[in-house]
Amino acid sequence: MNTKLSSVQDISAAGAAPFAWPAGSATGAGSMPGISPAEAMAVITGELPDFPHLAELPGRGAGADMIGRTAALLVDLPVETTPRGWRFAARPGRDQRRAADLLEADLDAAQQAAEDYAGPFKIQLAGPWTMAASVELSRSQDPALADPGAVDDLIASLAEGVAAHVSEVRKRIPGAQLVLQLDEPALPAVAGGAVPTASGLNRVGPVDHTAASAGLAAMWPAGTALTLVHCCARGIPFGLIKESRAGGLGFDLSQLRRGDEEGVAELAEAGLAIFAGALNTHKRERVTRPAPVTAREIARHVIELWHQAGMPAGRLAGQVVITPACGLAGFTPEAAAVALACCREAARIMPEMAQEGTQ
């Protein structure tokens, strides 16, 4: 076990619901560089001792990518790879087995790294709507989203797989208070009718908000400490996420549009956790130059959003978790470690900065 990994207790920020992490916490978005699960988990548990997460290593290729990783959990719904990505298949094959084997290796590494750990631990999977927008039908190259029957099958299969996955992680890390993150970068396009068909000439019609929220809600297994929707795209459907009964929202702070602070405020006032992706992961210098921004700058950006949302400073430290904007797979290993450390330091100094009214 990494000796820096520590236990935490529930906190209750002034006026806020208790969450399974200490005030002033940070965690990762999900993906990490490299191909070694053990090395990635060592970095995560070392830099994020109070709120580690399961490492994702897409650099290993098909099956380790976000869609393939989640496809490994589908029950009685085979998939296979194509030159374009993933599609439904007639029978189980080596592609899905490879994805399952890679996920098993990740769980083995997490179990070893988090031995005897007690505290919040986050796991990430692609959400049902991003899966439906990304996996092709077996009969055509159209996304599953274009076939309501296929969508229903996908949601039912994934819900069963997610529940089994959560149960497996709980067995391996019994002291963990599990936080389940559904990555939904395609959710705004799904809700807005912007997902292209195979030809690219048409778009799949928008999914009704009630149906979309129900699809998310079907993924929430009993016993998780918190359920979280992570959307790093523009146009986050805040109301839809609230209706899904998610316990929190994660987003890329740089992708918020004018007026989105009202959506953030609505969720925060309802008691949802806010995972603020405040370390920009898009600019190329982030890949080769660790910590091009300071922890103080990161904390200031989060405080400014909280202030714009009209939320009391006393609730910030307990209700908001600082994260990188998205995954760190494109970083060097050294830069990824520094990025996580920078988020952790930003979260540590954020409460004092907020109380001082630092802008």
Description:
Helices cover 41% and strands 14% of the residues. The protein has helices at residues 37-47, 66-71, 94-113, 128-134, 148-172, 187-192, 209-217, 238-243, 260-269, 285-288, 295-308, 316-319, 333-356; strands at 79-82, 85-88, 119-126, 135-136, 176-183, 226-231, 248-252, 273-279, 320-324. The chain has a 6-stranded parallel β-sheet with strand order 3-5-6-7-8-9. Helix 1 packs across helix 3, helix 1 (37-47) packs parallel to helix 13 (333-356) and helix 11 packs across helix 13. The longest helix has 25 residues, at 148-172.
Order of helices and strands: HHEEHEHEHEHHEHEHEHHHEH
- Low-confidence segments, given as residue ranges, are 6-17
Annotation field: number of helices: 13
Task: State mean pLDDT (0 to 100 scale).
Answer: 91
The percent range for helix content is 40-55%
End-to-end gap: 39 Å
Give me the count of strands: 9
- Strand percent estimate: 5-15%
Shape: globular
- Main sheet makeup: 6 strands, parallel
Structural class: alpha/beta
Whole-number radius of gyration?
19 Å
Strand adjacency order, main sheet: 3-5-6-7-8-9
